[in-house]
Specification:
Layout lengths: L1 H13 L24 E6 L16 H9 L4 E4 L2 E7 L2 E6 L5 E6 L13 H14 L10 E8 L2 E6 L6 H4 L10 H6 L8 H4 L3 H6 L7 E7 L3 E6 L12 E6 L3 H10 L4 E2 L7 H6 L3 E16 L12 H10 L2 H8 L4 E2 L22 H10 L7 E7 L2 H15 L4 E7 L1 H9 L5 E6 L7 H4 L8 H5 L5 H12 L3 H18 L2 E14 L2 E2 L16 E2 L8 H10 L1
Parallel strand pairs: 1-10, 14-15, 14-16
Antiparallel strand pairs: 2-3, 4-5, 5-7, 6-7, 8-9, 9-10, 11-17, 12-16, 12-17, 13-17, 18-19
Helix pairs in contact: 1-19, 10-12, 17-18
């Protein structure tokens, strides 16, 4: 009834003279009143949300939220994921040495507050990100200086050439915030922002962007509510409101969709896919993601002496029944790459992928001194799919004598523990924030960042190839470096990819124009419209129906 009350209140404001005494036939209104925009209800597991401050957030759900509430300078559209497209920046130039980027902002853009978007907001946003020094700060590591040339022109100098920089500019962490509003709520871009910035609590509950929607609330493990920005510079959204409800049980998700209590879900459990496809009121779309689920194994002997031996890590990788996992547990909605870099990325050859070899795994364990096996805890963020897969992993490893104790955790707790480098053996997931090979080569190779840091992985050879990928402007040389890096990672085996998922998106047939995006998942402005009967009724009829309900 909350949605009904909201729509009713909007109608009462729009039609102040409406007679509510009776619900019989009404006289024609002298002027037409626009029908209210519809509310779309999405159900999803959003327990990963730790913060919704774009310069602090480094989870998954926030990617979708920030793509709708903030603008970046550039973007990747679902229709062409190979090309960087303009967003706040109409155009840009790159210096011949690849070190300087000059961006020209679209004129007349305003934040939802009404403040104009200026080059100073860009400078403030990127320096705040850099100086807060939280998880996503590394996106700005390569930035040496940000200069305001004039109100509509920004000049960015890099520490070294970066073929990935434009792609990084599309990452939600690089969102442009309203500097005036953020400062009003305690924000700062000063060098000591990690100690002095106080805007996070406010930004958890509000947005300070120029995007098509405005965040109005976040209730942890319950819901996130967005409302349309009617003055959005690219046109008003087709949706008036988006409510994202936290639902973790897959069966409940499908039941809500079938009853009409929800309109959209972006990652249905594979076990329920056929039921969804059989429902005439639902549409099912399969999205090939770049998401991957993996096992990560520490290189720190203080956390696990067995796992610190690469022969043991190799044995574990050879013990997993990948085909059985993908076919039986994921119903075939998955694929697998040779290393931690997913299929579809430059230089990744599926022919290099190795499968299960129990004989070789046992030989490696014997060589490492663990012929009789050992015991290890497997930590992971719990959800129904992962519980099933974790049980399968436990069974697989038992066949070579490794006893696995399952340690499910709430997702936010798991992330905190992993980031603190406290976990030795992890079953986790990785979702890209931008579309460039460095999204994987950087964070699984360098000892001081990303998953490599969390698992204490440190190999100069891996870093050498990752550096080539991150700085080489020649695509052929980048591709060769990625191939060489995969060989190093497959030998060290700090990670083994379990599967690269396909997303099963289910929606009410009233949802139109959906286009899956491998970073944003759902774009509520560009790729979703919602044609529901309520949106086309006259205000008089709608009020009468709601009063009766």
């Amino acid at each position: 009834m909350k949605t009904f009350r909201l729509i009713l209140s909007l109608i009462l404001v729009a039609v102040p003279g409406l007679n509510l005494v009776g619900c019989g036939p009404q006289a024609a209104a002298p002027t037409a009143t626009p029908a209210p925009l519809p509310t779309l209800v999405m159900v999803a597991n959003i327990d990963d949300v730790v913060t919704l401050d774009p310069h602090h957030a480094y989870e998954t759900t926030n990617l979708m939220i920030h793509a709708s509430t903030y603008d970046t300078l550039v973007e990747f559209k679902p229709s062409d994921l190979t090309r960087v497209a303009p967003r706040l920046a109409d155009s840009w130039e790159v210096s011949p040495d690849g070190l300087t980027y000059t961006f020209h902002l679209h004129p007349g853009v305003k934040f939802s507050s009404g403040n104009p978007v200026t080059a100073e907001d860009v400078r403030f946003s990127w320096m705040r990100l850099k100086n807060i020094k939280d998880n996503p700060a590394f996106y700005a590591d390569i930035i040496s200086e940000v200069q305001v040339v004039d109100e509509a022109t920004i000049k960015v100098t890099l520490t070294e050439p970066s073929p990935a920089f434009l792609s990084i500019c599309a990452a939600p962490a690089m969102s442009i915030v309203d500097s005036k509003v953020v400062k009003e709520h305690g924000g700062t871009d000063a060098a000591d922002a990690d100690q002095t910035d106080k805007a996070k609590d406010w930004l958890d509950q509000h947005s300070a962007g120029s995007g098509p929607f405005i965040q109005v609330s976040w209730t942890p493990k319950a819901e996130i509510v967005l409302e349309a920005n009617p003055n959005y510079w690219r046109g008003a959204p087709k949706l008036g409101r988006v409510v994202i409800k936290h639902v973790s049980d897959p069966t409940t998700v499908l039941q809500m969709l079938q009853r009409g209590d929800a309109d959209l879900h972006d990652n249905l459990d594979p076990d329920l896919a056929e039921q969804a496809k059989a429902d005439p009121n639902l549409n099912v779309v399969i999205g090939q993601s770049l998401d991957q689920n993996y096992l990560a194994m520490t290189s720190n002997p203080d956390l696990s002496k067995p796992l610190a031996d690469k022969r043991v890590r190799q044995a574990i990788a050879l013990s997993v029944d990948y085909d059985g996992l993908i076919q039986a547990l994921l119903r075939g909605y998955g694929s697998r790459a040779p290393s931690i870099i997913p299929l579809g990325i430059l230089g990744v050859d599926p022919a290099m992928t190795q499968g299960r070899d129990l004989e070789k795994a046992r030989a490696l364990l014997k060589e490492a001194g663990y012929e009789n096996g050992f015991t290890v805890d497997l930590a992971y963020g719990s959800n129904p799919t992962r519980e099933t897969i974790a049980a399968k992993l436990k069974s697989d490893l038992a066949e070579v004598g490794i006893t696995v104790n399952l340690k499910p955790m709430e997702q936010s707790v798991y992330l905190s523990e992993m980031r603190a480098q406290k976990l030795a053996f992890c079953f986790g997931g990785w979702t890209p924030d931008y579309l460039d090979p460095t999204m994987w080569t950087d964070y699984f190779s360098y000892h001081d960042r990303g998953i490599a840091k969390r698992m204490w992985y440190n190999n100069p050879e891996a870093e050498k190839y990752a550096r080539i990928v991150g700085t080489e402007l020649d695509p052929a040389r980048r591709e060769q470096a990625i191939k060489e890096l995969q060989k190093v990672l497959m030998d060290d085996m700090p990670f083994t990819m379990l599967y690269q998922s396909q997303r099963i998106i289910v929606m009410n047939k009233a949802v139109q124009g959906f286009a899956y995006h491998p970073v944003q998942f759902v774009n509520f402005f560009d790729s979703v419209s919602y044609t529901h009967l309520r949106a086309h009724e006259t205000p008089e009829h709608l009020v009468c129906r709601l009063l009766l309900e």
